[in-house]
Design goal:
The chain is an alpha+beta fold. The chain has 7 helices and 4 strands; from the N terminus they run ααααββββααα. The protein has one domain: SMI1/KNR4-like. The longest helix is centred in the last third of the chain and has 15 residues. The chain is globular.
């Protein structure tokens, strides 16, 4: 883990987030989250690497996309919500969408804009990363809006710290989501 934290610090010397931070306040490294309270609030354990990053680097506001969303006392998302508050909001059922169901344990941690979120599957032993894109929803339930993004939070952060373009890996010409959506489109055209 020390190698990842060192790599992130090096990346932060040149770039705090991928998509700019004009609306974000500065990093909040002085007061780490209350992890025990946040874990009780959401009902699951947070990844060890996340705890170290939020303690040693900042409570959100850095990283992929518009930056990681903070935990308690941290940098909120664009709508002013911390990750636990956003999780609670997404878990509520929707009267507008009767088939809406946010997966248990899926903590949104990164905002890409247009309601697209990278999330940690905190019930997965490897803390797999999943992407939520409501803009591609076209079915009865919402499962078509979720995509596997990375095998773990650690691999995802390592890729970013190494200079990887995580957005392009998902939505670029050869990106995973691009390929999946092309397959869906081809399937519809063949029917």
């Amino acid at each position: 883990m020390d190698d990842i934290i060192a790599a992130i610090r090096r990346r932060l010397e040149t770039k705090r987030t991928d998509l700019g931070d004009s609306w974000r306040p500065t990093l909040i490294p002085s007061e780490p989250p209350d992890f025990a309270s946040d874990e009780r609030r959401v009902g699951f354990a947070l990844p060890p690497l996340m705890k170290r990053l939020y303690t040693e680097i900042g409570n959100g506001g850095f990283g992929p996309g518009y930056g990681l969303i903070g935990l308690s006392n941290g940098v909120p998302d664009y709508d002013g919500l911390t990750a636990p508050a956003l999780y609670e909001e997404l878990r509520r059922s929707s009267t507008d969408e009767p088939n809406w169901s946010w997966p248990e344990g899926l903590l949104p941690v990164c905002d890409w804009g247009c309601a697209i979120k990278s999330c940690i599957d905190c019930l997965d032993p490897n803390f797999r990363m999943r992407l939520f894109d409501p803009n591609v929803h076209d079915g009865e339930d919402w499962t078509d809006s979720f995509f596997v993004e990375s095998p773990s939070f650690e691999a995802w952060m390592t890729a970013w710290a190494s200079g990887g373009d995580l957005w392009n890996a998902m939505y670029g010409p050869e990106g995973d989501v691009t390929r999946i959506l092309a397959t869906r489109s081809n399937g519809l055209k063949q029917k």
